[in-house]
Design brief:
It is a single chain. The chain is an alpha/beta fold and 329 residues long. The chain contains ten helices and 14 strands. Helices cover 33% and strands 23% of the residues. The strands form three sheets. The protein has a six-stranded parallel β-sheet, sandwiched between helices. Strands 10-9-11-14-13-12 form a six-stranded mixed β-sheet. A two-stranded antiparallel sheet has the order 3-4. Helix 1 crosses helix 10. The chain is globular, with a radius of gyration of 20 Å.
């Protein structure tokens, strides 16, 4: 299968190539796409070198699937052109996520919504992906009423410039700033721009995307998103209120049996999820599971996942895998 990766030289695009190779996706020909300044350069994939081409050249190559990770503006401009040529686009930006005509997909949660007619498919926000993986089985069993989430998000979610800023600060080197403030030895309670209601766009993404993916507008979500100086992945403290009561053993059994989730919940041996251990893994890890003793039918948990893997590249590749498996692309 001929596959295009748009934004192939970026942090997420590079990770997509890595994931395609590691998961043995059936790529017969790779079409790497990047900005005009990168056209003509080469990328390595499965031991071969592929020359980076322009957007129009990629469309002319007629790949079956194009995985986009090149920003919202690029996606808004080019994804419809790829789709018009019969190419299925899986887009990692926020451009199409809340478009009512486009599907927003986490394969383990709602792949069933996909059809052959879906030519632009949205990959959700990284922090939303790992949370809904845990929420879905719990919602099916106990019915979620409300979610309160605080995130602790890796600098890799911002990109190479942010990683460089943190590393420069650790070395005492002055350089380009991805953030308004120092990030090393700090926590910045702002991810993306502020909206009129006082929440950031990242926080509102978690609110709105959760309802769309879970196919339930009745779930109330409130979020606070914080950037911290880590690299391995995003962490989330999540408080979940249910309509029905639960037994702790049942919750743990349900989560440990759910696809894509690894239960790390052994406090006697200090076992709990951490970004250091989630780094470069495709699973979502959940632990510190405990009852909220302040009100009935409420649970606290801690969720960690590599934001460049499951939070971006892996989820996009899993969508492509589903399309191939079901003959939809």
């Amino acid at each position: 299968m001929k596959i295009a990766v748009v934004g192939a030289t970026g942090l997420v695009g590079t990770k997509m190539l890595e994931v395609l190779e590691q998961r043995n996706f059936p790529v017969t020909e790779l079409v790497p796409v990047a900005s005009e300044k990168s056209v003509g350069k080469q990328v390595d994939f499965k031991g071969s070198k592929y020359t980076i081409v322009s957007m129009q050249e990629a469309i002319d190559a007629k790949p079956a699937i194009a995985i986009f990770s090149a920003g919202g503006g690029t996606s808004l401009q080019w994804a419809p052109k790829f789709a018009a040529a019969g190419i299925t686009v899986i887009d990692n930006s926020s451009a199409w996520r809340m478009d009512p005509e486009k599907k927003l997909v986490v394969p383990e949660v709602n792949a069933h919504v996909l059809t052959a007619a879906d030519k632009i498919i949205a990959n959700p926000n990284c922090s939303t992906i790992q949370m809904v993986l845990v929420l879905k089985p719990l919602h099916e069993r106990y019915t979620i009423k409300r979610v309160v989430v605080s995130t602790y998000q890796s600098v890799t979610g911002t990109g190479v410039k942010a990683v460089d800023q943190m590393m420069n600060e650790r070395k005492g080197i002055k350089g380009d700033m991805a953030y308004k403030y120092q990030i090393d030895m700090n926590a910045i309670p702002q991810i993306d721009v502020f909206t009129p209601n006082g929440y950031t766009k990242e926080e509102m993404k978690m609110v709105n995307e959760t309802k769309k993916i879970m196919e339930d507008d009745s779930i109330r979500v409130t979020a606070t998103c914080v950037r911290i100086p880590t690299i391995g992945g995003h962490s989330e403290s999540v408080n979940i209120e249910f309509e029905k009561d639960f037994e702790m053993d049942d919750v743990k059994s349900l989560l440990s049996a759910s696809e894509g989730i690894v239960l790390e919940d052994d406090i006697d041996n200090f076992v709990y999820p951490m970004p250091l251990n989630a780094h470069d893994k495709d699973e979502t890890f959940v632990g510190r599971i405990r009852r909220d003793e302040t009100q009935p039918n409420t649970l606290n948990c801690w969720i960690v996942s590599d934001n460049l893997r499951k939070g971006a590249a892996t989820n996009a590749v899993q969508i492509a895998e589903y399309l191939v498996e079901k003959g939809l692309a």
